Amino acid sequence: MQRLLKATALLIAGTVTATAFAEDGAEHLRAYHAQAIAEQAKHYRYGDDLDIARVLSSTDVSGQCGIVPTRLDYEDSQGQQHTVEYLVWGSGCNGG
To answer: What does the alpha-carbon distance between residue 16 and residue 23 come to, in Å, rounded to a whole number?
Structure first.
């Protein structure tokens, strides 16, 4: 009976530890992914030649007013994904 209790306790401890590592690993993966995207982002300058074949996503600035940073994720004609950062005038300003 004691062996069964010890085995059960070890199994529970292992499961809790594995779950904690999995959650911690997922958080590290999300942080790594966000950093990788930030490092890959190109800061747009007026006149830059961008090869945009398909827009994947862009920042929603409809609720913001004034000059705000935005990102555009796109795919070029070769199928490579890129991110460009730039400033836009938010479209959420009231009264013109």
So the answer is: 11
